[in-house]
């Protein structure tokens, strides 16, 4: 059986339009009958939701900082199964990495030996694009720039100037997408909003597909794809939280990594899902309850009024089920959540903490974690932190000893009371 092929869509910097171009590529190729599997570099939750909607296939995260090389190759191979092309959207700029210098899109492209399609924002530049692209193409020998897609091109004259300059680099220009206000995606404090919240998302996606289909040479792009490396089977390194895991999933608890859920299913766990926003309780026989991250601060009144949900959590605690919350889920396990307007909303009350949306700047970065709870995972873990809230809590055992990507010690994270535990960290993989 021939190996699936892949490409990485990257950019010199954030804000160049690689998400919109990737969405347009997925939708345009799907219109042509090409089966494309989407993936996202790094720990992002929101871009994969968009990518999945565009491809009509769930996207997967490939995180070269948090995940072992064998795990990355295996996940990429599994994701590409049944598809003709794996399309991986990058994160930030091509060579932007964590504080320790590892985990860039370039690292992932080199590991998977996939060509990079560089999306370059052509706004307010012309011939200078050539040294920019040449610099990226020659920066690291193991990273191949297969082609360039120009974005936000002002006119035909502008396009001719750009393409003429690029000719000297020897790197093919695959297309030039004109400026188009219809291709802007709204944002929220944690990044892009979720696709279900974008009015007329399908209209936006149609506009992206039309732009890419009309201005990008899709046949030439597909011809640049390279086979994925052969991957040995990889056992998930984060075992299931229990045999029967009840998982909160709705607009307030939307941040779930597919590789975790797939790994738990593969290891025999039975997963069920419930919506706290419609006051559903976790199933009564669950031996573990997982509250993932999301946007609980946008749904304070509904969560405060969700009496069946909160009673179900208390019952799970009383039967000694493991209850684990990450970021937004950690906030909901507390006594109160104070939203950005200063309104306080009563939460589950299983941990003595109050959280507030009050930070002027986001807390962001990779985390090296060592756990002190009953999580059935290795002691040392890799994760990510991203939030604008703060937590005021009583003295209690923290869930994690923590360090940043450089190994610099951070204050302990989270809280543990018996088998109820949580923190702001989103755990990605074993260290």
Automatic annotation (TrEMBL):
Cofactor section: Mg(2+)
Biological source species: Devosia yakushimensis
Name of protein: Hydrogenobyrinate a,c-diamide synthase
UniProt entry keywords in alphabetical sequence: ATP-binding, Cobalamin biosynthesis, Glutamine amidotransferase, Ligase, Magnesium, Nucleotide-binding
Domain of life: Bacteria
Residues under site feature: Increases nucleophilicity of active site Cys: 426
Matches recorded under InterPro entries: CbiA/CobB_synth, Class_I_gatase-like, CobQ/CobB/MinD/ParA_Nub-bd_dom, GATase_3, P-loop_NTPase
PANTHER family: COBYRINATE A,C-DIAMIDE SYNTHASE
Gene3D superfamilies noted in UniProt: 3.40.50.880, P-loop containing nucleotide triphosphate hydrolases (3.40.50.300)
Catalytic activity annotation: hydrogenobyrinate + 2 L-glutamine + 2 ATP + 2 H2O = hydrogenobyrinate a,c-diamide + 2 L-glutamate + 2 ADP + 2 phosphate + 2 H(+)
Segments forming domain CobQ/CobB/MinD/ParA nucleotide binding: 7-190
Domain notes: Comprises of two domains. The C-terminal domain contains the binding site for glutamine and catalyzes the hydrolysis of this substrate to glutamate and ammonia. The N-terminal domain is anticipated to bind ATP and hydrogenobyrinate and catalyzes the ultimate synthesis of the diamide product. The ammonia produced via the glutaminase domain is probably translocated to the adjacent domain via a molecular tunnel, where it reacts with an activated intermediate.
Entry coiled-coil feature ranges: none
PROSITE patterns tied to this protein: GATASE_COBBQ
HAMAP family (UniProt xref): CobB_CbiA
UniProt family annotation: Belongs to the CobB/CbiA family.
Role summary: Catalyzes the ATP-dependent amidation of the two carboxylate groups at positions a and c of hydrogenobyrinate, using either L-glutamine or ammonia as the nitrogen source.
Enzyme Commission number(s) of this protein: 6.3.5.9
Name of the gene: cobB
Active-site residue list: 327
Pathway: Cofactor biosynthesis; adenosylcobalamin biosynthesis; cob(II)yrinate a,c-diamide from precorrin-2 (aerobic route): step 9/10
